[in-house]
Amino acid sequence: MLELLWLLLPVAAASGWWAAVHSARKQQRSSGDEANPVYFRGLNHLLNEEPDKAIDVFVEMLEVDSDTVETHLALGNLFRKRGEVERAIRLHQNLIARPALTREQRGQALLELGQDYMRAGLYDRAENLFLELKQSGMHMQHALRNLITIYQQERDWNACLESAAELEKQTGESQKLARSHYYCELALKARNEGNTPDIQRYLKQALSVDKHCVRANHLLAKFAAEQGDSAEAVRLLRLAVDQDPEYLPEVLPEYVETCKNLGDQEKLKAFLEEMAERYPNRGTEIYLSELIRSQDGDAAASEYLAEYIGRTPSMPGLVRLVELQCGNPALRDENLLHNVRSHLHRLLAEKVDYQCSKCGFLAKTMHWQCPSCRSWGSIKRKPLLEVGTPNSRELKK
Helix, strand, or coil here: 369? Predict the structure, then answer.
């Protein structure tokens, strides 16, 4: 409350100054008055900690002219930040209706009103205002960024591509990452519609925009597998891992399944061994232990996991090792192992697996676009065991 009062005091001061300078404009004042009673009424609301009533009074006092436009814009921005979007919309609409505004003042008011509409979820109205700004050449960067936000919300990926290209020209900032994801979204749309020719076309366009787009190669691999071309799917999945090893956990299940379809166990084992050594704590050791178990039995799989965990701490690896040990009738204290297993499962269930590298947003599942900061390709899987945490130290003992 005190913070809001401090914000409103300059508004009150400005209103009082305006009332003094423009006293002749106020017909309701008596000729002997030296102060505006409405102004003092507003101050009284402030002192009584009634900021809403104070704001209404000061807005009532402020006529729109060249001296008060900035005050109106500041008040509207304050309303929007406080979540009072309807009041912000009314104020900015009233401002735009005034014929005395300069071109720059009208452009600023249009931008603020467009942001009000976006906050209220009125995307059609906001889009029309930002398009007007774009056509007039005013506040182009802000208008284009807001248009992209609206088009992403509406999943109009072609409009996103057009606006991103314009924004790139305006700012010189590369938009290739976002554009590559827009093409991937178009490919998914074509896939859902059964439009096979467009799937590959869009994904190739994504790679032409950004040759490092791991998502495009991942989708191409999915498409190849659906078409029965397992060898091409394996090649593309390996390429996706080489592009960005941090996405290895997302690729692993499909790589394993596709290799099984090919019947190439040796190629799969070589790949898993390489990945487990090059990129520890990505879950590869679990798939490799299962392959060893299918070929050589539980004891061999248990021996591999024990050796691997000794070199590279792995929470999932430890869980799997305990599960294998629980199935061994030679163990004397099965209750202890079963209890450890249940606790480890609980810890894994509570663990947040993904985090945005831009804003730190935490997620349980994979997102190609961060729900918080709207960045593309910024969410990555966290290490399966963060060495140095109290849990990991306990596990090492």
Answer: strand
- Provide the pairing of β-strand 379-381 with 362-363: unpaired
Distance of CA 77 to the CA centre of its chain: 24
Residues 272 and 345 in one domain: yes
Distance, in Å, from the CA atom of 207 to the CA atom of 212, rounded to the nearest integer, reads 7
Nearest CA among 215, 220, 219 for reference residue 380: 215
What is the residue type of 289? S
392 pLDDT tier (thresholds 50, 70, 90): very low
List the 362-363 sheet strands across, edge first: 362-363, 354-356, 379-381
Domain that holds residue 337: 264-350
* Number of other CB atoms surrounding residue 168 within 10 Å: 16
The tens digit of pLDDT for each residue in 158-207 reads: 999 999 999 999 999 999 999 999 999 999 999 999 898 999 999 999 99
Alpha-carbon distance 357 to 367, whole Å? 12
- The answer to whether residue 379 sits within a structural domain is yes
CA atoms within 13 A on the CB side of 355: 8
Answer yes or no: is 94 within a domain. no
The pTM score is: 0.74
Residue with the bigger pLDDT between 5 and 229: it is 229
| pLDDT above 70: residue 284 | yes
